[in-house]
Structure formats: structure tokens, C-alpha cells
Fold:
Amino acid sequence: MSTINETRPADALRAGDRQADEHASATKPLGGIAGWMDDRLGGAKGVSFLAKKVFPDHWSFMLGEIAMYSMIVCLLTGAFLTFWFVPSASQVVYDGSYVPLQGVTMSDAYRSTLGISFDIRGGLLIRQIHHWAALIFVVSVFVHMARVFFTGAFRKPREINWVFGTILSLLACIEGFAGYSLPDDLLSGTGIRAMNGFIQSAPVIGSYMSYFIFGGAFPGEAIIPRLYSAHVLLIPAILVGLFTAHILLVFLHKHTQFPGPGRTNKNVVGYPLLPVYIAKAGGFFFIVFGVIALISAVVTINPIWAYGPYDPSPITAGSQPDWYMGFADGALRLLPGFLEFETFGFTWSMNIFPGSLVLLPLMWTIIGVYPFVEAWVTGDKREHHLLDRPRNAPTRTAIGIAGISMYVVLFLAAGNDLMAIKLHLSINDITQTLRVLFFVAPPVAFWITKRICLSLQRADRQKVLHGRETGTIWRHADGRFEEIHAPLTPDERWALVQHESHQPLELTAGKDVNGVDSPVARKERLRAKFSNFYFRDRVPPATPSELEAAHHEHDAHAAAPEGGHEAIEPAGASQERETIKADKQPG
Amino acid sequence: MNALAARRRHPAAIAVLLLLGLLVTGGAYSFLAPKDANASAPTAAADDVAHGKDLFIANCATCHGVGAQGTKSGPSLVGVGAASVDFQVGTGRMPLAGPNVQAPQNKVKFDDAQISALAAYVASLAPGPAIPEEKYTTVIEPGTPENNKAIAEGGQIFRVNCAMCHNFAGAGGALTRGKYAPALDGTTPKHIYEAMVTGPQSMPVFNDMNLTPEAKQKVISYLKAQENETNVGGLTLGNLGPVSEGLFAWVFALGILIGCAVWLGKKAA
Structure:
């Protein structure tokens, strides 16, 4: 007997409803396995949203992909390495197959890393893939960051994602540091020793912090297991979580695109994720993995067996961190020793502290807040989905290059000893030169970059107004020469004229009609100053009327009768002068 | 000529021109560079010391003085011993080509007989470290357990005493004001031993009191064992540590990957 009471009168009322339900399930767009899955997970809507996402095509948009894929390679190979690595500082005697270390007492961490390198099948290759992928990961993160910066992709609505990216890049560096500190070879132990020094350089609390982190005096037995937890668990978890948020925000905001015909702030011109980008991006993963594997198969990285086990007394010449920590090492090499002093029984290690504990947070804070500073200066509250060409934002580009030049000076300083021996120079001279360059290079780089950007803008303007130089010189019947300029197609022209040209903010009166100081006047004055700094030098894009005028002139020029020398020379000269005037006029 | 004019705006024209310029300059230099004058004495004399003295006066006395007592431009060689002469002249560091912060390794200017004559003459001036006995400069070959142990000990001695200047793999390192610790690969066991005993240039002396001859032999054996090891990881990038690895990652790895990205970005959907 059925439990359903079929005689309930109210059922009659629902009869139509059930039919509607049946109708809905019958007309579901998905059948088969996909439909079965959707009935249980309800993912169809989200998946189709993602699959239809359109991405624009440009090689520079794939830099972040390189970072993503090399991170995945790190995760995969890292899992493999954990099967054999023993994160322990307990002392053992090596009896593996690497002859020059047989019978040497060393930590279990080092012994197991030697085991991975010499006695586990494929272990050395996986270790090298892991380390090369890590270097390439951080390289591509930085290059991706530079792309986003110089194209202005960090502007509204993407500021939060820029901050996420900033944190990700810092975490990537810390993750790398924790990783290369693990094998407990001579070099990595030296790195931990340096870290200990960094911590101790903190005024007053330094030595306490060092005892806290090392669980006692350096080196102790605690640091390797602690770094291991951080390296395989804590930081990767944050890294992957934040990275997922980073990617989701890209989907949410839609990808930015370079300006071009038909591309606006409201659309994205490109191809959908499915099937085009799934294929392209999926294929690119294998390309990245393949390139990393190839490099790892032919080029040694971190030959831990040659360094020997860590022991606090020896050190090797050319002790450097992996490249992404190089700039901090370089800062330490540049900081003069006389900055250290003592007061009240405390040592103030100002010869180390600024380069060790201040530099990293400071640098990443400056990077993180930049979008907000620029937004405040420009007062621009609009959304931007079209990228800037770097030349069209000369001051931003110049600031970026100035910052990079500062970074590069520190970075080079970390290799001062190797530069000295390979270039046959004095390490003292190199260090002094870099000290000067640290202060001189950024302003010079700023000025040069800005000038180059402005010149490129002028060149664009010339190109728009007078066409592309063909390199073909015509000699007219009357003896004058002329270079033939080919006009641009509208598509080509659009890319050169579409950008907006900011003008410096005008300072509104600081006093109201009654002569009372406006409360916001001071802040506004500062803002006007910054705005002036950003946009004082500007080359406005050619306007349609200017284009019209230029065409007119060309026509007149071409149609000029055989007026002889005098008639033509002034015409050319005046045209030249007018162009210059157009460049210089304020608005 | 017409074909050339048509091609001169080709994008590769600048690269080709530069390459041509470099080739011509380099080629011209290799033809015109000053050649070494070969002026060494032709015969070996019967009396080593006397012959050594002749050689010394002809080749070394300008800086080291006629009696090897030293001048303003060169130190006294009284008491430096035969080992020092054998090292300095045998590795081509002496005679010095020109004043420098440090004598660079150079082409060896004398043959073995002449070097031993010079060494005999300098050794005759005052007692000093002699050329090491062959049993200490014989490399201990890996294979047996005790030999392997000796090599591993040599490694420990090397890391504690030598690696801070010569680098973990003996690839060399920088010292102050343009001085440097040279790379050790390719140096003969005898010369390594002599360097330890005599402490040339900025190097400290490791006498038999602080490193026994057996310990020195172990260090040499370790260096040679490391040199003879197959590079299991592939190219070593000069064994210079993370700097060359970082350079490789930025130039080659990033270069290849961006190349791939550009290629893929150009592919039609």
C-alpha cells in the first residue's frame, strides 16, 4: 500500500505545478553526465559564466600565467620531495654514494637532501625542477607586476587585486627563502645565519626575538623543522588562497585590454575561455613545465653536495642568497659600517637594520599604496579597463623606472664580489660607485625615461598628423626633394590618438569670499603640486581638427605650383614651426 | 650595388654591420697585438746555482735586486725558499708583466730545468721551504674506504681553511681592492702544496705545524676528487652560487618563456 494519499483534494490545485516542474527538467539544457552533475552540484551556471569569459590576446598577459604555472610545478615537485626529505637537525654520519662526503657528520636534513640528489631515482631532477621553478616563479611574478604597473592596470577597480598581488610577491620571496634554507648545506646555513643577524639587528628586542625564533641560541635544532612547517604548510596555504582570490578577481573585473579599434571601457575584445583559452592556457602550462624541466635537466642549481654540510665556523666565498633576496643582501653590502653606535648599553645596528628589517616591508608598502597615491593625485574616480601605453603616462613610467633602477643598484651590490673577480675590478671601487648610484641613478633614470616617453608621444603625434615615413625620397621636376609619407589607416591611427591627456589640477582659491582660509586648502595645495609634477609636461594627442588641418596643408603642399625655391622653403618651415607650436601649447 | 642599396634598410642590417665591425676589429687585434719576445737562455748549465744566478740577474734582478735582497719595486727573496720560486715561476706569476695589485697567473716563461736552477739559486741564499716531496703531492684516489675517508677529511679541512676565499668549489673569490683568490681547478698538486707552504700574495702561510703534510695532501686529494666528479646536475654555471643561477633564470629561462608567450599570443584562435 502506498504511503501517498492520492485522494487529497488539495493535490488537484498543484497538478499544474508538477507539470511545470516536469517541463523544466525535460527542457534542461544539459544532458548526460554534465546534467547529472548539475542536478547534484548546481555548477552549470557558474561554469558557463566562466566558460564564456572573454580574454584579450597579448603576450604580456601571459606573464602572470607563467607565474601561475611555475607555482603549480613547485607544488607538484614539492610534494614529491616531502616523501624523502627529513626536516631534522639531528646529527648523523653520511654513508651514501657521494664519495667526497662519506664518513662526514651532518644533519639529517642534509643527509636526506643528499639522498634525494644521489640515491633516489629521479630525485635530483625533481629537486632541480623544484628550485628552478621557484626562481622562475619569482622572476615571472616580478615581471608580471611590472607589466601591470607600467600599463596602469592597477587603477580602479583593480586596486585591491594589486594589493593582493603585492602580498603574493612578498610571500613568494619569503617562501623561497624558507625553501632554500632547508637543506642545511653550508650556503643555506649561512643564509639562516644572516637571518639571525637580521633579527638581532632590531633595536633592543633583537636578541630576544632571535632566541624566540630559534628556540634558544643559534643554530639550535628547532629552526629547520620550523622553517619546514612554514615552507610546506603555512606559506603555501596563504599563497594558494590569496592566489585564488587574485584569479577570481580577474574573472570578476574582466581582463584589461590594450586600446584599439572597437575596444572600449565597457567591452572585452578577445576569445572566450572555452574552447580557445582553455586550449591556449592549458597548452601554455605544458610549455612552461617543459621549459623548466629542460633547464633542470641540463643546468645545475644549488649543488648542495659541493657546499658540504653546515657548520657555523666555515663560510664560502660568494655566499649569496637566491636572486629575489639579493637586493636585501646588496643593501647590507652598501650600508657603511660607521652607522653602528651604542647608547644606554644598547647597540644600535644601523649598519644592518635599515637593509634587513626596514627595507623589505618599506619596499612592499610603497608598491602596495602606489595605486591609491596616484588615484588621489589624479582625482580619477572612474573605472579603467583600457590599458595605458607606458609612454602615455610619462610620469608613472618614469617613477617605475626610477624605482627599478634603485632596486637594480641594490641587486647588483649583492654580486659585488663576483663582478670584482670577473671584471678584474676592485670590490671597494664597485661598492663606492654603487653607493653613489643608489642616490644618483633614480633621478637620472626618472628624467631620461620621462624625456623618452614625451619624445615617443611627439613621434606618435607626428606620425598621426603627417603619416609614416616611407624612406622613399622623391625628387621633383623643380629640383626639390621630398620624403614620401604614407598616411596611417584609421585602425593604426586610433591606437595613437585614443588616450586622454591629463592636465594639472587648477588650484581653487584658498580663501572664501569672506577671506577665511578654506580648511581643505593646505591638502589641496599639496595635491595641486603633485598633480603639477605628474602632468606638467604633456603632449596632447592629435585632435580631429588638427588632423584635418594637417591634411589640408599636405594637400596645399602637394598642389603647390612650380613657385621656385623661395615659395617652397618657407612653406615647409612654417609647417615645421606650427607642429612644434601644437606640441607645446598647454591644452 | 643596387641589391645592396635595396637591403640596407633590412631590419638585420644593423646587426650584420655590428657583427662585421666586431669581427674586423677583433681580427685586426689578433694580428697586430704585441707578441711575446722569446729571450730565455738557451742551455742548461752544469752548475744549477750558477746558472740560476745568471738567469736571476737577467730576468729578476731589476725588481728583486742583484743579490735578491729586494728593492723598492720588489721584495727580498732571501729565505723564501725553493718552493716559493717553483710556485711563482712555475705558474707564470713571475716574472711579473707589469705592476699590479696582484701577480696574475700567466704563460710560464721558463722550462723545468731553468725553474729548478732559479729555485736552487734562491734556496742557496738562506734556508726556506723546499719543493715538497712527491709522496705528499700524490693525489689519493677514491675507491677504498680509507681513501674515501681521507678525501672527505680533506673536504672538511678545505671548508674550514680555504673556502672563505677560494669558494666552496675552488672557483675563486674576491679580496679587497682588486686582489683576489684565484680559481684552483687545473692547478697541479705540487703548486697547491707550495702555495699552502709559502703563502703567496695575500694568502696566509699554512706551515707544517698547523696543517701537517698529510693534511695538505688530503686537501689536494679532495680538490682533485671534486674536479674529477661528474657534474651530476648538468652545467655548473661556473660554480659561483646563486648569482649565476639568478642571471640564468632572468636571461635564459625568462627569455625562452617570453619567446613562447609571444609565439602563442600570435597564434590564431
Notes: Residues 560-587 of chain A have pLDDT under 50 and may be disordered. Strands of chain A lie at 54-55, 91-93, 105-107, 271-272, 340-343, 346-349, 468-475, 481-486.
